[in-house]
Amino acid sequence: MGHFGSARIFKRNCAGEEKRVGTRTVVVGHRPVSEADAYVAQKFCDNRIVSSKYTVWNFLPKNLFEQFRRIANFYFLIIFLVQVIVDTPTSPVTSGLPLFFVITVTAIKQGYEDWLRHRADNEVNKSNVFIIENAKQVQKESEKIKVGDIVEVKADETFPCDLIFLASSSTDGTCYVTTASLDGESNFKTHYAVRDTTVLCTDEAIDSLTATIECEQPQPDLYKFVGRIIMYRSNQEPVARSLGPENLLLKGATLKNTKKIYGVAVYTGMETKMALNYQGKSQKRSAVEKSINAFLIVYLCILLSKATVCTTLKYVWQSNPFNDEPWYNEKTKKERETFKVNGFVFHSVCSSVILSYICKWQGDFLHQGKVDFGPVEFVFTDKTGTLTENSMEFIECCIDGHKYKDCISEVDGYSQTDGPLKYYGKAEKSREELFLRALCLCHTVRIKQADQVDGLIGHPECKNTYISSSPDEIALVKGAEKYGFTFLGLENDFMKIRNQKNETEMYQLLHTLNFDPVRRRMSVIVRTTSGKLLLFCKGADSSIFPRVQQEEIQQTKVHVDRNAMDGYRTLCVAFKELTQKEYDRIDRQLNEAKMALQDREEKMAKVFEDTEADMHLIGATAVEDRLQEQSAETIEALHAAGMKVWVLTGDKMETAKSTCYACRLFQTSTELLELTARVVGESERKEDRLHELLMDYHKRLIQDVPKPRGSLKRSWTLSQDYGLIIDGSTLSLILNPSQDSSSSHYKNIFLQICLKCTAVLCCRMAPLQKAQIVRMVKNTKGSPITLSVGDGANDVSMILEAHVGIGKEGRQAARNSDYAVPKFKHLRKLLLAHGHLYYVRIAHLVQYFFYKNLCFILPQFLYQFFCGFSQQPLYDAAYLTMYNICFTSLPILAYSLLEQGWMGLSTLSALLVQDTIHWGGLSQCTCPVFGNWTFGTIVFTVLVFTVTLKLALDTRFWTWMNHFVIWGSLAFYVFFSFFWGGVIWPFLKQQRMYFVFAHMLTSVSTWLAIILLIFISLFPEILLIVLKSIKERSHQVRNKMKYYQKHHHLSY
Known about the structure:
Elements: H1 3-13, E1 23-27, H2 59-67, H3 71-85, H4 93-125, E2 128-133, E3 136-141, E4 150-154, E5 162-168, E6 174-179, H5 180-183, E7 185-192, H6 203-207, E8 211-216, E9 227-231, E10 239-243, E11 248-249, E12 254-256, E13 260-267, H7 273-276, H8 287-318, H9 321-324, H10 333-337, H11 344-352, H12 354-365, E14 376-381, E15 388-399, E16 402-404, E17 416-417, H13 429-441, E18 446-448, E19 465-467, H14 471-482, E20 486-491, E21 494-498, E22 504-513, E23 521-528, E24 533-539, H15 541-544, H16 554-565, E25 569-578, H17 580-595, H18 600-611, E26 616-627, H19 631-640, E27 644-648, H20 653-662, E28 671-675, H21 677-680, H22 686-703, H23 716-719, E29 722-727, H24 728-735, H25 746-756, E30 759-763, H26 767-778, E31 785-790, H27 796-801, E32 804-808, H28 812-815, E33 819-821, H29 826-863, H30 877-887, H31 889-898, H32 911-923, H33 932-954, H34 960-981, H35 996-1000, H36 1004-1051
Parallel strand pairs: 14-27, 14-31, 27-30, 28-29, 29-30, 31-32, 32-33
Antiparallel strand pairs: 1-8, 2-3, 2-4, 4-13, 5-11, 5-13, 6-7, 6-12, 8-9, 9-10, 15-16, 15-26, 16-17, 18-19, 20-21, 21-22, 22-23, 23-24, 24-25, 25-26
Helix pairs in contact: 2-4, 3-4, 4-30, 8-11, 8-29, 11-29, 11-30, 12-31, 13-14, 17-18, 19-29, 22-25, 29-31, 29-33, 31-34, 32-36, 33-34, 33-36
Pfam family, one: PhoLip_ATPase_N
Transmembrane segments: 933-952, 964-987, 1007-1027
Membrane topology: Multi-pass membrane protein
């Protein structure tokens, strides 16, 4: 029978596994199963990665659309169009030039950033890969890989797409990869080739493979994959093998310690798991920038009200014909029929809009424009590699209730007993050996062979390196080695160990029951050389104790509880002996479950549950996951500052929980509330059970808590002592409830519970779930400021979602973050020191800009009362344009970057006093004025010097840059005024400013008026600074006196 007939029979015999929606079929090597049928390639997406935002064709319209979505930009555009269309007193250049300048610079900046993304994409898409075609290696660009291509990847290369592992240079069909750029894990992970393809380790052999792969459609979960491969051989029945996450090599991971591997592409381009977990980089906007928009609206309303008042008063003034049309300036018929709004508002409001741009550029200078450090309320952090060093150390173990902390002697051993169990001398020798054999066999650790140097023989004492996806497994194997049992590696499905007598023991590895977060344990089934079948199991105490003999628990539980209180990660070890009949049943059930495409996890879980029952407890281990330096102190400092810290990790609950205790996120007095798959269950009633738990927790935390008297800010730090633990599967039920359930309100209840807890731990989180958590908190009432910190690609979505994103230096997360730090401890200084300074600076920046622009506009408003509301501008058009761009922008920019002292007096507090004195003094000025432009120039000179010197008074931390920009800005204003009025400009119709500034300064009265007005305007500020300084000094003197009196009294 040919391949085609075999395939039809095979699929017909797989009851209930016919092609379903949500699966795809991949033809390996594009080689059809039946030679009689023409092969029609399926259409899948190509392997191009696109992270850029613009193209050459859409850059201009898309960028302009995004920029004009900002209120400030749009408002400026409207003003410019009004000045172009309507007859206004000022030229459209007044508003058009700043608008063009800002839009152009922003477009260039964003275009350059996107060009960098294009370049990075091209580096990936144009990288060279090797495809096996017709038994030969063909070099292609990565973007040309198609689903079904057989790809060869060599050591230290990154996988170009998601591949099903077929064969490697290792005879056992394994390879080692690092996924630091995907999930932050720096440990080596072991992946396995399909059993029947491991021998196809050459180009010719792998090209001879005829097979199809049936698997699920692309989905973002990094830890799940369900599929099967069907291999066809001539004149033989098709052979089917199951495929799981251990067979899938993810794009972005790197091949290590393996010369080469062959894999078939199943997901390419934007359908790879890495791409599906990438959340597009949005344009973040700080809370200050959003508040500026609100201020601009208020400012616009103020200006429109002024325009309304002036327009009304203008028509009141014009009601007298003599006032409206003097004999020397009669109106034309067209002017009489035209209605005009008082136009001073148009040229005055334009200048204030520069505020938003200066704020934005100031923020850009401070690392990507994020200035939300000061008011951060929620900190979301990854665990592995962020809080911890991801390095575990074996501390001690317990065998039959006896504590072993030092090495066991080969003769009689050494042990210590716990508490009431002192009558146990030590565990029996056979039990000690059984426990240590369990540690050597029950794991997924592999051996990295020591490097060989040409011409030299390896030193016999040279030790091999252990490799595993879980660092605690390595710690346990090293712990067993301390006590005399050494794991020597896996070869041809046989595990080799060396015992205390230096004898080599061989165990055939029959099945590995991998760890999962629901079972919280793992097991192996091995066969000894004598034919005995043994099952070894290790896992959390809550998972092991219900499955062992109850009389064996108490003697080990004492040890486990004490280590848990010390913050160690504890694991219990059990075993049982299987008969051949029991093993045959387990083997058949496991193979059937592994072949299922539908409900595979549920079927395997049932087999695991039946297999891991009626075991015998041997002992327990204690492993310490080393925290990064000062991680605990940093979290305590953040808590003391009123911030809530949430840990979002893809790690197992037990590991994450013990880490949270070690870093003091959870205290020993913290009552933990658990919403995990273990508590909710896997039955059909799990949503009902979830509802019961949510309502119970809500009642305990919110409904039953008496309301505190008075308003105690951040009362949770004093009255609440709850912690919440939730896993990814339960979070999915809450955020994505089933259509037929009445659980739409789960999210609100869950959020209320979270906000009442002092700390929250989210474990087994997929990358997008991390972003969902951040988004959920960010969108709560009050819009709290959020911060995310992580180190891996799995943290990128979380980092991009938060208001402030922080990545670990040198990692993919850092490339997508707003800031990068080398260690978690630096978060303390970044938030509590720099964050405070940034927020003080930006607050003063906003106040100062509105202050100086209101000072700028108020004289023009008052001037209308003296010119008959005729729209006569007080300032020259050049001064209107240059005021915010050149004359007053650099001093506040330098202040907002460099100031390290406390902001003194609120800049708005003295506004009305200063402006009233300012205008009143000018109105009484007796100096010679030769026209309205001279008067306007005097006003503008006093204005520029007053607002600049006001900032100088507020500056507490002087640098050379402050001196340069403050005094340089004033000098530039004087130079520009001389230059602008000293030349007859051919492009101007009227030379109204010619020689005005120079002539103005020839009057002594003018000098006196300018100096006196500046001094009188700043006198309230100077007086308050002096009084404040006297008060501070007197307070210091009193403190010194108290200190002296106290110590002087003690000396007697």
